[in-house]
Structure formats: C-alpha cells, structure tokens
Amino acid sequence: MTFSLPAPCNRPESRYLISACSSLASHPGGIVTEAPAACLHPLSDPLARPRTYFPFGISAEVRTVPRAYVHLAHEDTVFITGWKRLKTHKFLLTAVWPGSAGIRPYDPRVLSQLIRQSGLAIAHAEYDVPLAYQTLLHSLDYDVAEGLALPDDRPTPLEIEVAVSEAGRKGRTARSLTMEVRLRAHGATVVTSRSEFGWVSPAVYRRLRGGRPTAAWGAWPLPAPLAPESVGRTADADVVLSPGLRPHHWQLRNDVANTLLFDHPVDHVPGLVLVEAALQAARARLPGFAVRTVRSSYQRFAELDEPCWIEVRPAGPPGPDGGGTLLVGGTQDGRPVFDIALGGTVRRPVSHP
Fold first, then answer.
1. Which of 48, 150, 214, 218 could serve as 63's disulfide partner, Cβ 3.0–4.6 Å?
2. Distance between CA atoms of residues 103 and 152, nearest Å
C-alpha cells in the first residue's frame, strides 16, 4: 500500500525529519519513514498509518499520529490518535488506552506514556519544536481518580485536554513548556497532570553531555531482577529493580528487552524508567501499594552503564489503610538523580470463605 505525502505546509519542523529519524535507524524496525503533517489533523492524515502489531490489543482500525511526533520506534506504543486547537494555548487530543484481558487497575506505564506523548505531539505540531531537538523532562506530576480501572479486553477511547504555558523562546522555537493535562474517559476526568518539558538543539545537547562516551546499547551488565510479583509485574523483563545493599535499597536495572520503557537506543536512562523504578520500589516497600499521586523532579541524567541506587522511605506515619506518602530517591556516583513522592493506598488481598 502506498501513502501520498501532504502538500508542503511551511512548518519548520519538517526540515528536521531526516536528522530526527536517523537517531532511530540503528534500532531493528526503528526507521521512521513518516513525514510530519503539522497542518493536518492526524485522524484524516494518510500518514497516520494503521497499526500492524498489537500486543496491547488495539484493533487494526485504530490510526495513530506519526511515530516521529512522539519519538517512538514501535508503533504498538503510540497511543495518541489526533489533536485540535481549542484556543491559543489550549488543545484537545484524542487517544486510546490499550487493552489485553479483563478489567484491572490502570497501568502507570501507559499513563506516563500518554502524558509524555501528549506533550511531545503538541510541542512539535503547535510550538515549532524541531524533531531533531533533544527533550529534557524537568518534572512530571499526576493525580489519579480513586479506584480507576479500565477494561483491558478492548481499547478505551480517551480525550486529553492540554493547557500550555511557555517559559521562553529562542526565535520561533519554544525552549520550555509547562503543560496542564486533564484526561477523560467516558466523559469523566480520571487523571490530572502537570509536567514541564525543555528542548535543546543537538549541539547544545552534546555540550550538556560533555562528550561522554555512550555504551553500546544493552551491553552493560544486567543485575538479577527482584521477583516480578514483589513489584506488581509478571515477567523479569518488566522488573527495573535488583536487590541492593540493605533493606529498602535497590539497584536500577536497564533491560532493553522491555520496549515499552526502552523504545530505542538513547544515551541515558529515560525519565519514564525512573518513574517506573519509583513505583516498583513503593510496591516492594509496601506490598499492594496503589499510587494515587506522583510528584517528581529530575536533577541530572542517569547513566545506563553505571549503578544507580534507589531508596524509599515513608514521609510520615501510615494512614488508616496502611498507605500514605513514600519518598523515593535515586543517586548515582553519590549524586542525586531524581526525587519522586508517591501518595497512595494499600490494596489488601480479598479473602474468600
């Protein structure tokens, strides 16, 4: 099947497609061929191609935005299906929550991806952020409605309302954007979020990284995982923690077999991996912990090939249900990498007579 290119729309991001896609070319199946179509609504854009691989159970009729807009190599993890501008700095996106089997509590990995993809799509399509620029995640906060559970046997359509404020520009390009997000399912708001993203040119990014040599993708030592069930996962590849040196202390493990977290080769640990590490640490510390709030900040890049240590401690006495707020910190080479505060409750196993 062939797809026709849209007419040129004179948006500056289209000039950066080749260099943006070349960073994915070394990843198997990761060569991005779609050109941005910033002047078109992706739902009617012929480049928003049908899916061909659906590990999450999304049907072949679902069309999503070009992968280049959300910096992903794998089509099965693109959840944004379209957007439109409501006001000068307010947008409405459509998306799908993927399904697999049954109805169960939401997966925070999918939620974090949805928030990330919403920010990237709007930044590139509406704020002239070139695709070749490097994204810096400064903070990611969200609140989840109590008892949120979504059907996993089919995709759930979502609406995502995004309000944007700018913190500065260099020429036509936004350097930093703060985004307030409201995610709605079946007409009800189920998640609110606030995040701050920054962007730098490839040259500035090289200076930030200081010419540090990059380890071959996946070549670093991979420590043994915790038992998957102890962190709310079912497979070793989904576990991002390894036993540490003392109680409530773990080592980060970067298993690139997990393409939901490690979509394509990069030169540092992705921010969403650090969020997942904090969530798993909370479950290891408090079995049955169900997160309701996330407050995160990031101080520096986490290197893939150096030990990163994760610790968790309660912020205060537990609540009536055993939950409360847990403070998770990550350090590398003795320096702080991130801090994440998690608020939640503890789900107790249901006993049957």
1. 48
2. 5
Q: What is the pLDDT of residue 148?
A: 84
| Maximal CA-CA distance, the chain | 68
So what's the pLDDT on residue 210? 83
Taking residue 197's Cβ as centre, other Cβ atoms within 10 Å add up to 24
CATH number at residue 50: 3.10.129.10
Cα Rg for the chain, rounded, in angstroms? Answer: 20
Residues 202 and 223 in one domain: no
| Structure tokens belonging to residue 280 | 């798993």
Same domain membership, residue 36 and residue 155: yes
Mean of pLDDT values over 305-332 = 91
Residue after which a domain boundary falls, among 145, 176, 206: 206
- Reported as a single tens digit per residue, the pLDDT across 9-51 is 333 322 222 222 223 222 222 222 233 333 333 333 333 333 3
| H-state helical runs in 229-339 | 271-285
Q: Is residue 1 part of a domain?
A: no
Query: CA 100 to CA 103: how far, in whole Å?
Result: 9
Q: How far is CA 189 from CA 77, 216, 241, 300, in A?
A: 23, 43, 32, 33
Q: What are the residues whose beta carbons fall under 8 Å from the beta carbon of 331, sequence distance 6 or more?
A: 308, 309, 311, 337
Looking at the fold, whether 231 and 166 belong to one and the same domain comes out as no
Lowest mean pLDDT among 124-128, 164-168, 258-262, 287-291: 164-168
The pTM score is 0.78
Domain assignment of residue 187, yes or no: yes
Does any domain span residue 6?
no
In a domain, 5, yes or no: no
pLDDT average, residue stretch 223-244:
95
Give the pLDDT of residue 122. Answer: 93
